[in-house]
Structures are given as C-alpha cells and as structure tokens.
Amino acid sequence: MFDTALLLTAAFVAGALNSVAGGGSFLTLPALVFTGVPPVVANATGTVALLPGYAAGAWGFREDTEPPPGLSMKLLVVLSLIGGAAGAGLLLVTSNDLFSIIVPWLLLAATLLFALGPKLREWTAGGKPSTAKATAGVLIVAAYGGYFNGGLGILLLALFGLLGQTNLNAMNGLKNWVSALLTAIAVAIYAAGGVVLWPQALMMMVAATLGGYGGARVARRIPAPWLRGGIVLTGLVMTAIFFYRQ
C-alpha cells in the first residue's frame, strides 16, 4: 500500500511538473528505485508512465504552442522520432551498474543548463541559429530523452531559448509535444526490449495524466521566475539524493 501510494503521488506531481517546465522524472525514477526496481527498468517504466502526461500537458498549452525560429513542426516531428529511437536503443545495451553511475551527472548537467538558460540566451544573442544547428540540437536532446527522460523538459526549454523563443508558455507547449513524440517511439522500443514493468507503469499513467493537464492549466497563471526557481530546486535536490546513494 505504501509503495502504491508513493508511486501514484510521484506520478501525479511529475505529470504536473513536466507540463510546467520538465523534471518529472526527478520524482518517478527515485520513487521506482526506492520500491526496489533496478535503475534501467525504473527509467524505462517511469518514462512509459509519463507519456500520457506529456500529451495532456501539450493539450493544456494548445493555445500557446508554436515552433522555434528555423524549424517547422513537420521537421520537429521527424527529428523527435529519430532521436528518441536512437536514445532508447542505447539504453537497452546499458548495464544497471553503469546507468547508476551516469544518472546523477545527467541530472546535474540538466539542472545547471536550465538554471543558466537566461544567461545562455544573452550570450548567444545577436545571431539567428541556422536550420542545421537547430536540427542538430533537437536530435541530440531527443536522443538524450530517449535514453534518460530525467531533465528532458529542462533541456528542451534551454534549447528552445537558445533558438530564439522567449514566450515560456509557447516553449512549454512545444516541449510537451516534442516530449510526447520522442517518448512514444522510445516506449515502443522499451516494450520490445522487455524492460517495462507494466503494472506500475499503467497505474502511474493515470496519475501522471491528471497531473499533466491540471498542471498545464495552472502553470499558465504562475509567474515565470517562480516556475524556474522551483524546477531548479527540484533538480538539485534529486541530484544530491542520487549522488548520496552512490
């Protein structure tokens, strides 16, 4: 009963967090690991659980979504699917021991990049990114998302900011659409590889979906600095927990 309550609560809050600005796997991954699930399986299962939450969050931001400069929606769809498939395939050949070592560093990098997002945009201001650079950026982040979902939204927001987007709600809507696409193809590969615990994934899906839609509607009314500060704090806390576990 305690494990079930923990997983449902983590999934609900993660769905809301993902719809706001990302970082939901900062909660689902530790919750699954705490209940005894091996790290690689926990990452895959948590990713499956958050898929409908991404879709619900995207629908919640539907009035605001628009592509970043230099990319079309059609190209974003293709890049998201290709990158997500590549990352998911890489996860299937990664051992639990190696993944446990990599996780805290990935979390730390994602959190720091998001925290420095405004400064990075200032440093890169003045020039328009080419389609080639934008394409490479989306492919790399999508592959990261297919491999390790933690901090995916944070990286996508940082990327869209570097590509010239400034409206946080528009960035959030696009982030959720891209996350849903790359996660969908990754989930298919995880399922084929047999690394998903479906009982946990299915019940967490319901909670994440409710949290995703509700979070998106509420987030549109919250000041951007508050959102950014809360996400950075969540990322730092979860990073510290995983380093401590090592």
TrEMBL record:
Transmembrane segments: 41-61, 73-92, 98-117, 138-160, 180-213, 225-244
Pfam families: TauE
Topology of this chain in the membrane: Multi-pass membrane protein
GO cellular component: plasma membrane
Entry keywords, A to Z: Cell membrane, Membrane, Transmembrane, Transmembrane helix, Transport
Chief localization: membrane
Localization (cell): Cell membrane
Similarity section: Belongs to the 4-toluene sulfonate uptake permease (TSUP) (TC 2.A.102) family.
Name of this chain's protein: Probable membrane transporter protein
Organism, as annotated: Simplicispira suum
